[in-house]
Specification:
The protein starts with a helix and ends with a strand. Helices cover 20% and strands 35% of the residues. The protein has 122 residues and is α/β, with parallel strands linked by helices. It has one helix and eight strands. The relative contact order is 0.18. It is elongated, with a radius of gyration of 32 Å. It has a domain at 43-121: Sandwich (Immunoglobulin-like). The chain has a four-stranded mixed sheet, with no helix packed on it. The chain has a four-stranded mixed sheet with strand order 3-8-7-5, with no helix packed on it. The chain binds copper (II) ion. The site of copper (II) ion (CU) has 5 residues, from strand 8. Residues 75, 108, 110-111, 114 line the site of copper (II) ion (CU). Pfam families: Copper-bind (PF00127). Residues 47-120 form the Blue (type 1) copper domain. It comes from Candidatus Yanofskybacteria bacterium RIFCSPHIGHO2_01_FULL_41_26. GO terms for molecular function: copper ion binding; electron transfer activity. Keywords: Copper, Metal-binding.
């Protein structure tokens, strides 16, 4: 009878010991290493005061340009390489990703003085 109790205690001690050890050396709460995925920042062109600001910009192939109309008057971004925004109301945006190297002129058809140029470098 004493042997049974003794072996029972032994089992409890061993189990408790294993539990303690696995708890201690088990998977630690590692903070996952942040993966450095470069997020290309979109280039912003603000449409304000009947002008594209900035009107002359140089970007890299694959960059995205985002136009934001801050005027109460509607404007468009219309031009080379498929640039064709709808009529942008106040605070509306138009984005375009340039995947071709070259020079892209654009304008706003209702307002001929509004012009801009995007130069896309490799
Ligand atoms: Cu306009």
């Amino acid at each position: 009878m004493n042997k049974i109790i003794l072996s029972f205690v032994l089992v409890v001690v061993v189990v408790a010991g294993i539990f303690y050890m696995t708890k201690k050396s088990g998977p630690s709460h590692q903070t996952p290493t942040p993966t450095l995925t470069p997020t290309p920042t979109p280039i912003t062109v603000v449409i304000k005061g009947f002008a594209f600001n900035q009107s002359l910009i140089t970007i890299r192939k694959g960059d995205t340009v985002v136009w934001t109309n801050k005027d109460s008057v509607s404007h468009t971004v219309t031009g080379d390489g498929g640039l064709s925004s709808p009529l942008l109301g106040q605070n509306e945006i138009y984005s375009f990703t340039f995947n071709t190297v070259g020079t892209f002129n654009y304008h706003c058809p209702p307002h001929p003085s509004m012009t801009g140029t995007i130069t896309v470098s490799p």
